[in-house]
């Protein structure tokens, strides 16, 4: 029997509750499949930072290397640790070090979930560039505190980085409804986004079967609300992809529904699976976090590991649960009740 080694990083706040929920569901899914999941949990988090002065040990990345995948909850506890410290100390370095350049975020309405727009048939796939662009961490501040202070944050876009994420987007569009929306802001940003548009046009000739359209990020935000049925696969830079995926989450009914996979397509390092949402300090400890995004992310992990049947079973169990109205309305059901319902739907 095949055993997959999974590193669990529950992190902070509701990250812990939803990771527990996802792990319970994945455990049950593996027992009815013919594989096993061996989990090792690491307490790397803001609590860990307060005790040790770092978000993870110096050899943290090395430790994770030997796993088949990483399942993460959420990172961040801004009341005690600045976000710029916690996220740059744990989540973002993993995405970069493991070259998880394709962040896949599916947004669709689950059965029984009304969603704010009543957007019947809402079903898009966002592909977010995950290792460079606006998140490159290049820049600095001079004359700190003075009237003439300047802060610079440089976005770095490489041909290799842009080409590979666009290619990934074209492939996804080909496997779905054949439509790719490339999202930029090339009317205002004249270097990086013009570069991105040029590469999009060049690659388009290799994918004549994919209908590709370039949109500006502002117009895309409006289109996602006004005409979401006109969209299929969206590909965007790191920051733009971050923003439109919280919008996608909202349209699908709330942040508790949005799953994500940080994929290293070449499989040269582990991929990482985590909900789109954060640690939700406002509802942490209340037991009302929706675990569906984390469970769905777990299904994406099974799919990535090659356990397609188990992945489909988990998705079917999520859908059976929301179809019964359980977990469909944010805040109405407890985390535990939703998890129990998914577990029992799993049979
Ligand atoms: P957030 O996603 O944590 O919360 C935004 C809103 O959505 C809150 O009102 C919250 O209660 C609600 N929400 C989020 N997940 C939910 C769920 N599963 N069920 C029900 N409601 C849910 O965003 P934020 O408040 O901007 O960030 C809080 C912290 O999390 C910050 O430290 C931030 O940097 C961090 N963060 C981490 C990640 C990550 O680890 N991937 C992602 C986003 C934010
Ligand atoms: C996400 C989060 C992170 C991001 C933050 C917490 C750094 O918002 O995964 O969407 O912007 O990538
Ligand atoms: Mn985000």
UniProtKB/TrEMBL annotation:
Residues 5-342 form the Isopropylmalate dehydrogenase-like domain. It catalyses: (2R,3R)-tartrate + NAD(+) = 2-hydroxy-3-oxosuccinate + NADH + H(+); (2R,3R)-tartrate + H(+) = (R)-glycerate + CO2; (R)-malate + NAD(+) = pyruvate + CO2 + NADH; (2R,3S)-tartrate + NAD(+) = 2-hydroxy-3-oxosuccinate + NADH + H(+). It comes from the Bacteria. Its cofactor is Mn(2+); Mg(2+); K(+). The keyword Translocase does not apply. Pathway: Carbohydrate acid metabolism; tartrate degradation; D-glycerate from L-tartrate: step 1/1; Carbohydrate acid metabolism; tartrate degradation; 2-hydroxy-3-oxosuccinate from L-tartrate: step 1/1; Carbohydrate acid metabolism; tartrate degradation; 2-hydroxy-3-oxosuccinate from meso-tartrate: step 1/1. Keywords: Manganese, Metal-binding, NAD, Oxidoreductase. SMART domains: Iso_dh (SM01329). InterPro entries: ICDH/IPMDH, IsoCit/isopropylmalate_DH_CS, IsoPropMal-DH-like_dom, TTC_DH. Its EC number is 1.1.1.83, 1.1.1.93, 4.1.1.73. PROSITE patterns: IDH_IMDH (PS00470). GO terms for molecular function: D-malate dehydrogenase (decarboxylating) (NAD+) activity; magnesium ion binding; NAD binding; tartrate decarboxylase activity; tartrate dehydrogenase activity. The keyword Manganese applies. Gene3D superfamilies: Isopropylmalate Dehydrogenase. It holds the Pfam family Iso_dh. Coiled coil: none annotated. PANTHER family: D-MALATE DEHYDROGENASE [DECARBOXYLATING]. Belongs to the isocitrate and isopropylmalate dehydrogenases family. Has multiple catalytic activities. Apart from catalyzing the oxidation of (+)-tartrate to oxaloglycolate, also converts meso-tartrate to D-glycerate and catalyzes the oxidative decarboxylation of D-malate to pyruvate. This is D-malate dehydrogenase [decarboxylating]. It comes from Phyllobacterium sophorae.
């Amino acid at each position: 029997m095949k055993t997959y080694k999974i590193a669990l990083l529950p992190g902070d706040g509701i990250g812990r509750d939803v990771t527990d929920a996802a792990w319970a569901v994945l455990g049950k899914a593996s027992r009815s499949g013919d594989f096993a999941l061996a989990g090792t949990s690491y307490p790397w988090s803001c609590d860990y930072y307060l005790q040790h002065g770092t978000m993870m040990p110096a050899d943290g990345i090395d430790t994770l290397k030997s796993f088949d995948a990483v399942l993460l909850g959420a990172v961040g506890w801004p009341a005690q640790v600045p976000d710029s410290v916690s996220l740059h100390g744990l989540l973002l370095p993993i995405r970069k070090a493991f070259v998880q350049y394709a962040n896949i975020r599916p947004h669709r309405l689950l059965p029984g979930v009304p969603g704010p727009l009543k957007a019947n048939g809402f079903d898009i796939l966002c592909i977010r560039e995950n290792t460079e662009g606006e998140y490159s961490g290049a820049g600095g501040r001079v004359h700190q505190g003075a009237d003439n202070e300047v802060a610079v944050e440089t976005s770095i876009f490489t041909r290799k980085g842009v080409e590979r994420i666009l290619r990934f987007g074209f492939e996804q569009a080909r496997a779905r409804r054949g439509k790719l929306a490339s999202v930029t802001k090339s009317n205002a940003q004249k270097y990086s986004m013009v570069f991105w548009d040029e590469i999009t046009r060049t690659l388009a000739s290799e994918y004549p079967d994919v209908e590709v359209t370039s949109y500006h990020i502002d117009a895309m935000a409006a289109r996602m609300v006004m005409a979401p049925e006109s969209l299929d696969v969206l590909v965007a830079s790191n920051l733009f992809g971050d923003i439109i995926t919280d919008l996608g989450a909202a349209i699908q009914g709330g942040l508790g529904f949005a799953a994500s996979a940080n994929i290293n397509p070449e499989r040269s390092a582990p991929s990482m699976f985590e909900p789109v949402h954060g640690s939700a300090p406002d509802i942490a400890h209340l037991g009302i976090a929706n675990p569906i995004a984390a469970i769905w992310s777990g299904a994406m992990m099974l799919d990535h590991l090659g356990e397609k049947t188990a992945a489909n079973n988990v998705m079917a169990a999520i859908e059976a649960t929301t179809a019964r109205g359980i977990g469909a309305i944010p805040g109405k059901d407890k985390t535990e009740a939703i998890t129990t319902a998914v577990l029992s739907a799993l049979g």
